[in-house]
Amino acid sequence: MIWTIEAKDDFSYGYKAGRGKERLFRAALGHAAKSLARRGADPVEERARARRHMALLAERYPAQLERVGGLARALGAEPREVMTGGLVLASIAGPGCTNFAAVPPATSDGGIYVSWNFDLPPWVRWLVGRMPLYVRDIAGRRPYVCMGLPVLFGIGVMNGDGLCSCVNSVGSTDGGEGLTFFELNNLAMETQSAVDGAVGVWKDNPREVVPGLATAIIMNANIIFADMRGEAVVIESSHNHMAVARASEHGGVLASANHHQFLDRSLSGGADPVIEPLIAGSYARLSRMWELLELFKGGIDMSVIRIITTDHELNYSALEEFGIKRDPYGERVDDATICCHPWNFFRHLRRLEIEEALVELNVARTLNNFVMDPARCTIYVTPGNPCRKQYVPVWVGDALRMEWADKARREIDYEPGWKPGTRGKRIDVFRRPYATKTSDWMRSIGLRFFAGLDRAISASLIKK
């Protein structure tokens, strides 16, 4: 059902990924090169940055350097070119995500759940598809399921030991070079089985943070981890500072959105809604998430999770701390609901607020909801807004070689080999059986259009 990349070593993994999605990688790296050119970036400095990062990988994470080399070989490119493109793609401005973890005693069935409302601009779907999961299985390393694009920006969401994670973007001005959060996440997922080990990966390595006070910078992120021992953590970090919160300190629940709640923002340089008004939606979403988790604590299961992830109600209590008061029955704050929709798009248009309308259209969009349920070896995915789409259960017990897969198979209420129906029309470009010149031409037009829209939105959001 999902793409599985099996490889005997790290170089082969990068090579197989490149050969399997060659056109997609070329389109993504071509977009990165054009983005650099439009920014007026200094080619000498970008090459130097890529070399510095490759030197850091050789010291801290040589496996990733091998994967970059394999991808470069498959594409007929230099590893430095691939590294430069990967760093550019990882630092695209973008909003994103309201997440939570629930572990005993907060769950009614003793389950361990990690939920990720994946909020990004619609054009991202052109890169990752409607079912953006794949399995990374490299000999000698823990296999795990990733979301995203292999090598360049894959985020591990569940490994064979049941360690689960999800991320959400956050702005920070305490910047510096190090391992990107994609690399930190991958390093943790392939080497660790418990949350304490994952926290150690963040503590023991330099963290790359791109300075910015946009609503979010994709390379900067908060991350949730949960393990089969029944513990979960939120890691909030900048380049020089870090804070860790545990579910055991909050009755078995944790929530996270697009700002720092545990890490002192005076240290990280994180934005508040006074400095950056567009971040107000993150404060509203996080307040509502905590409200729901406290309400359902002790009774959380899959049916309750669906109630939470599809929620459209408002909670402005955190905004009042900053002197911001909004009428709960008036116009909503942009990007203020857990299940995101561009609620104010037409209101902005009626007032001829074209830029605000485009920003709202770009930031307030839930592309998928992922629910990781490691005890049942299942990842539930909605191919669209969770309020409009049903969950598609993805069985990963066999692909990840989970020791308890046989037990889980007797507990699940779906057939592990079941596959959702797929459209055969050419409009669904990532599910077409064969590429044609016409379909590739249509995809390139779509990518150019959304890339141009994203650059325009990014230019209005990013604050130096």
List keywords for this structure.
464 residues; six-stranded antiparallel beta sheet; four-stranded mixed beta sheet; alpha+beta; 14 strands; Penicillin V Acylase, Chain A; 39% helix
- Give the domain tally: 1
Might you state the CATH topology name?
Penicillin V Acylase, Chain A
Task: Describe the global form.
Answer: globular
- The gyration radius over C-alpha positions equals 21 Å
Mean pLDDT: 87
N- and C-termini, Cα separation: 43 Å
Provide the CATH superfamily.
Penicillin V Acylase, Chain A
Backbone structural class: alpha+beta
Strand order of the largest sheet: 11-2-3-12-13-14
Number of strands: 14
Output the number of helix runs: 16
* Poorly predicted spans: 422-434
Biggest beta sheet summary: 6 strands, antiparallel
Approximately how much helix is present in the residues?
Answer: 25-40%
- One letter per element, helices H and strands E, the order comes to EHHHHHEEHEEEEHHEEEEHHHHHHEEEHH
Estimated share of beta-strand residues: 15-25%
